[in-house]
Amino acid sequence: MLTAQVKEFGGPEVLVPVEVPDPVPGPGEVLIEVARTDTIFLETQLRAGWGGEWFRMVPPYVPGGGVAGTVREVGSGVAEEWRGRRVAAFVDGGYAELALAPEGALTPVPDGLALPAAAALVHDGVTAMGLLERTALTAGDRVLILGASGGMGTLLVQLARARGAHVVAAARGAEKLALVRRLGAHETVDVTAAGWPERARAALGGAADVVLDGVGGTLGAAALPLTAPGGRFSAHGAPSGAFAGIDPDEAARRGITLYGIADAQYPEAEVRRLRSLAYTEAAAGRLTPVIGETVPLQEAARAHALIESRSLTGKVLLHTER
């Protein structure tokens, strides 16, 4: 089978196609014929050598944690009815034509939901549903979403609007701002403009009850003063290269509840529950993942370059058709 492997840490060019033997499912495992593989910004950071203190990645390795496809084979002890079913799962090494997954990791893909959409939601759908539950977003809340035009940001805009929140979406440039307005944002703020925090404050009507920071760095830190006393602030994103540097003492003085990336990590059963919720919403037409481009597996390096260029809105997926 074909895989895409990181041969050494470095730029996108270190991600190269490599043929390896087909895997065989062991006890309790299934073999998934992958249709689409999700890509996330974190994978580009790990490929470049970032995050060694949190992630033990040693080249050569196959990146990718989320796939959608069809179960081709089942190992011993696995229910036979999984064979031939459309599923999504977190796996080790998803940049591949075939992937192994434990039976307990499988989420059925409902009728009415295409596999590309399922792959686009395999990570971000889980995190988006979990974040809104964790921050207890409710009707009438004022919410500021940083990184609103990304794969997860576009989901958060739709879900927050559906919950009755007043949604202020922050993104870069006119095209991305137009997208998030179409998805339901009440107000938009261009973070490339000087003085954007004050524009956000005005759009929020003074302050945010909830801040969902999918960017990190200085942009994320600049959003803390925009949080209302007693509000909630989720610093879960770091595509800027670092999570937002939030002063916990300042947050405590203002009664702000802080959430970090650890609060967006879930046990297997919770992952399946949250993913199923996202799939139900998407199958019913109430949640639409934005897919910016789909790239052949053998061109995974180009997919990483697209992600790093920040030129696309929404997700970049890999496909396995040769």
Q: Quick one: biggest sheet?
A: 7 strands, mixed
Structural class: alpha/beta
What portion of residues is helical? 25-40%
* Structure summary, number of beta strands: 15
Spans where pLDDT lies below 50 across 5 or more residues: none
Q: Bin the strand percentage.
A: 25-35%
The number of helical elements comes to 10
- The SSE string, one letter per element, is EEEHEEEEHHEHEHEHEHEHEHEHE
Whole-number mean pLDDT: 94
Give the N-to-C terminal Cα separation: 11 Å
Global outline? globular
Radius of gyration: 20 Å
Which properties best describe this structure?
322 residues; alpha/beta; seven-stranded mixed sheet; six-stranded parallel sheet; 29% helix; globular
Task: Describe this structure as you would to a colleague.
Helix 3 packs across helix 4 (151-162) and helix 3 (124-134) crosses helix 9. Helix 10 links the parallel strand 14 (291-296) and strand 15. The strands form three sheets. Strands 3, 4, 5, 6, 7, 14 and 15 form a seven-stranded mixed beta sheet that branches. Strands 10-9-8-11-12-13 form a six-stranded parallel beta sheet, sandwiched between helices. It is built from ten helices and 15 strands. With 322 residues, it is an alpha/beta fold.
